[in-house]
Amino acid sequence: MIIRSANFDTSAASISVCPPAGLPEFPFIGRSNVGKSSLLNMLTGRKALARVSSLPGHTQLINFFTINNEWRIVDLPGYGYVKLPDGTREKFANLITGYLTERPSIRRVFVLIDSRLEPQLIDLDFLGWLMECRVPYALVFTKTDKLKSAAVGRNVATFEAALGKLTNGKPPVFTCSAENRAGRAELLQYIGSLL
């Protein structure tokens, strides 16, 4: 798939102000500081489409981007919400829950996992919740340029083994790097297959 255009649509602080659910949507979500904004910029080929911050938890709204006038990337707040007050955490949780369970135009949720880390309970808990809600998802392991390929492979296998304790099925898995654009073509091809 070729990205011909990528445009910011709107930011939504509640489900009621999200744009009409006409175009297919592909939300991206992950633990705070997983490299989501960098990945979205790499995927679309736009350096500043999604704002990159050195502080985790910068995304605090649902951000909608229209791609090729045909589908949308949706940038969701990260779970984990580092250094946020409890009231804000609850607000984010309700916002994410409402969007992921009520939005009819979602084709696949891309859950970003830091490839450098051992399986994190917060990631596994979130994936367990998606499965309970029957929300279709795929895994995207980020920051693969920080490790040798063999180490990435081991970490992905370890995560899949931990996830296997929650489900018999195996989701689609991608490995990506915003630094060297690894995995971009595969992700876009997969999105194209779902359109």
Task: Explain what the structure shows.
- The protein is an alpha/beta fold and 195 residues long.
- Helices cover 33% and strands 20% of the residues.
- The chain is built from five helices and seven strands; from the N terminus they run E-E-H-E-E-H-E-H-E-H-E-H.
- It has a seven-stranded mixed β-sheet, with helices on both faces.
- The protein is globular.
- Mean pLDDT is 88; it is low at 53-57.
Instruction: List the strand order in the largest sheet.
Output: 1-3-4-2-5-6-7
Based on secondary structure, the structural category is alpha/beta
Measured distance between first and last alpha carbons: 11 Å
Task: Give the CATH architecture.
Answer: 3-Layer(aba) Sandwich
- Total count of domains: 1
Number of helical regions = 5
CATH level 3 topology: Rossmann fold
What is the average of the pLDDT values? 88
User: What form results from the Cα inertia axes?
Assistant: globular
**Poorly predicted segments:** 53-57
Q: Going by CATH, what is the homologous superfamily?
A: P-loop containing nucleotide triphosphate hydrolases
Features of this protein?
195 residues; Rossmann fold; alpha/beta; single chain; 33% helix; seven-stranded mixed beta sheet; 5 helices
What can be said about this structure in brief?
With 195 residues, the protein is of the alpha/beta class. It has helices at 36-44, 86-102, 121-132, 149-164, 184-194, and strands at residues 6-12, 25-30, 62-67, 71-75, 109-114, 137-142, 173-175. The protein has one domain (6-194): Rossmann fold.
